[in-house]
Design brief:
single chain; 476 residues; two-stranded antiparallel ribbon; 17 helices
């Protein structure tokens, strides 16, 4: 053994300092974990939810109206829709390298793994043409694919058809896109059954997970480096400097931060609600972990930040709900089909989809997006482009997530929110859509549709789970 290693040969007496260290270490092992704040019955519930009530900032809606509408009207119907074949299969490339830093490390925990679908399990209609909504669209899509193979539009096509095909090929690069979409034709892209790969606690945390969120908040939320976000490392003044800054910025930049914070809160709720409670050779048991929830949202443990995060979740809910109601005309067109290859099933699911969207439209206190990008047209257009590029950057960061299951749901939820923003800011294009035939001004791919509804399904589930956590905390 090398000299100076600090280790002694077996049998020699340990120095007093080492014995003292071992004694302290053993005592620490025997101590119980730090206790959560205690109080009279209902105190735990109040610490998480006392501020999560009444009207939301920048909105005319209140928390209680959202709870009642979501939990007893929309959530059950939306859940049924998302269990259908059209919405449960999502094509994703989980092998794309991180574009921002060199990081080949991946989560080795077994719950981080994603099980892709064998191709024979995916419905034929979805595999053969994920965006084929009508016979006319089919023909144009096939012409488009042929044009891409040849590198140019076939000169034998009519002028009108050539222009239509070119418009279709340019769709995915549209300036209205808020996300970096996966190339679903890549050999690395695979279909995943979302019902067999649910979002839940995987054990992925620590510096790697912190790096992702830090990059999102610090570099993409319009925040100057001199303003520290609440609970960030370094100086922390309880968030006063941050919230004074946030109050002073324009509504668009404030909304951007609140959307990201709401998405973060929603993900944390899912991890707390579907936590690994028991792991034995015979079974795994998943369920709500109240301690985990409190550590993320308790007013005392988060120095007032937790309840703010929950309010931002409700803000996100209103934005995505509004987008669904705005997208209704696109889905109502007779030519639009939820194409899986089973005509009877597809017709039933389209009816359920339209019922869900009409229900979303009936919500009495919708968010008014007309306050966004108003005023001077030139400045508004510049701000909208900044907003879009910042969000697109966040969608790229999802390829840096080391846990594949977290990456899957992160990519899906950012694409869903990006699609919601695309819908909200394409109102004029939606209004100009023809009643029949392909819509070139505004179009949604199957990927965007599946992401839009599943992302809102995650937000809707979060609001529903809050009711469960309230009941548990109330009885503690």
């Amino acid at each position: 053994m090398a000299a100076g290693s600090g280790l002694r040969a077996p049998g020699l007496a340990a120095p007093p300092l080492l014995l003292l260290f071992l004694l302290v270490f053993l005592l620490l092992l025997l101590l119980p974990p730090p206790a959560l704040p205690r109080g009279p019955p209902g105190a735990a519930e109040r610490r998480c939810f006392c501020q999560v009530t009444g009207y939301l900032d920048d909105c005319t809606c209140d928390v209680e109206t959202i709870d009642a509408f979501n939990n007893y009207k929309l959530f059950p119907r939306l859940n049924e829709l998302l269990e259908s074949n059209y919405f449960r299969y999502y094509k994703v490339n989980l092998k794309k390298p991180c574009p921002f830093w060199n990081d080949n490390s991946h989560c080795g925990i077994r719950d981080c793994a994603v099980k892709p679908c064998p191709s024979n399990e995916v419905p034929d209609g979805i595999r053969s043409g994920s965006y084929k909504y009508s016979e006319e669209a089919n023909n144009l899509a096939e012409e488009c694919e042929e044009a891409e193979r040849l590198g140019a539009v076939d000169g034998s096509l009519s002028e009108e058809t050539r222009e239509a095909v070119l418009r279709w090929t340019q769709h995915d690069d549209s300036s209205e896109s808020f996300c970096e979409a996966d190339d679903i034709h890549s050999p690395d892209a695979e279909y995943v059954d979302l019902l067999l790969n649910p979002e839940r606690y995987t054990g992925y945390k620590g510096p790697d997970a912190w790096k992702i969120w830090n990059s999102i908040y610090e570099e993409n939320c319009f925040k100057p480096q001199t303003v520290k976000r609440p609970l960030a490392s370094g100086r922390d003044d309880g968030g006063h400097t941050f919230y004074n800054w946030l109050k002073g910025v324009c509504i668009e930049k404030r909304a951007f931060y609140r959307l990201i914070s709401g998405l973060h809160a929603s993900i944390n709720i899912h991890l707390s609600a579907r936590y690994l409670l028991q792991d034995t050779w015979s079974e795994k048991k998943w369920g709500p972990n109240v301690t985990e929830f409190q550590q993320r949202f308790d007013e005392v443990l988060t120095r007032g930040e937790g309840p703010r995060r929950l309010k931002n979740l409700y803000f996100l809910y209103l934005i995505e709900l509004r987008a669904l109601s705005k997208a209704l005309p696109f889905f109502e067109r007779p030519d639009f089909q939820l194409y899986t290859g089973n005509k009877i099933h597809d017709a039933e699911i389209k009816n359920l989809l339209l019922e869900t969207l009409h229900l979303a439209k009936s919500f009495p206190l919708h968010f008014d997006e007309n306050s966004f990008f108003a005023g001077n047209k030139k400045e508004a257009a510049k701000l909208k482009e900044e907003f879009r590029l910042h969000f697109k950057n966040i969608s790229k960061i999802m390829d840096c997530v080391g846990c594949f299951k977290c990456r899957l749901w992160g990519k899906l939820q950012t694409q869903g929110l990006g699609t919601a923003l695309k819908v909200l800011f394409s109102e004029n294009l939606i209004e100009k859509m023809p009643e029949s035939g392909p819509s070139y001004g505004f179009q949604l791919t199957r990927q965007e549709i599946v992401a839009l509804f599943n992302a809102f399904g995650r937000i809707s589930t979060s609001v529903k789970e809050l009711e469960n956590f309230k009941n548990i905390l109330r009885n503690m």
